[in-house]
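Sharing a chain and its predicted structure for anyone who wants a worked example. Both blocks are below, sequence first, tokens second.
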Amino acid sequence: MKRGLLLVVLGTTACSEGKTSNAVENATVSSASTQKLTDSSGVSVNSAPSAASQVRVLFFGTSLTAGYGLDPGLDFPTLIGKKSQSTRTPIVAVNAGLSGETSAGAVRRIEWALRKPVDIVVVETGGNDALRALDPDSLEANIDAVVATIKRVQPEARILLVVMESPPNLGARYNERFRRAYSNVAKKENLTLVPFLLDKVAGHPELNQPDGVHPNEKGERIVAENVWRALEPVVQEVYSKRPNA
């Protein structure tokens, strides 16, 4: 199955917009270096003993961020948070993934997600827009609005934008315009662009759940590496600018 076709299945497997996944609702996993907690709003947080001195990263996205279908603690934000604890630049990972959310929904929700200070925001949106064949210009406008809100509410926060792909059945021209929406915003707003989230995972049955869309535990570890590859240099840069660096 081709990469883009996987996104088509998402429309029948993802939860409805406005409903958090079990991975977020039931997160109570802990490890020697990090502990995953869930606050009253359903947003899960990885904390460590010295969390106050660590870089706080908000992962804002859809079911792919929330860890749909995975056991608590196996979503990629949590995996990244745990991985970072073995480095000189540990992070506190805040999972604000919401299953079924479109980019328009992200515009409405982002300010709420920013109610607590963060150092970095990783934005993952658009996959569900592709299922609806949303005009790429509208996708770009919505991503622009999300970024504008982040810069208004938390102007010091660094922003990473995750690229999503559209189904091939929508045509080459649509696919190119869809992809360009991300690069346009990243270039205009000087954002760090994270390559396709499901790179090396989409299209590989052994790395996905039965729905063929959401990564399984093995696939999620690859997703975590995809994101961490782009995120780690930004985390290091944020640390380097702190007074005690």
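Comments welcome. Confidence is low (pLDDT under 50) at residues 1-42.
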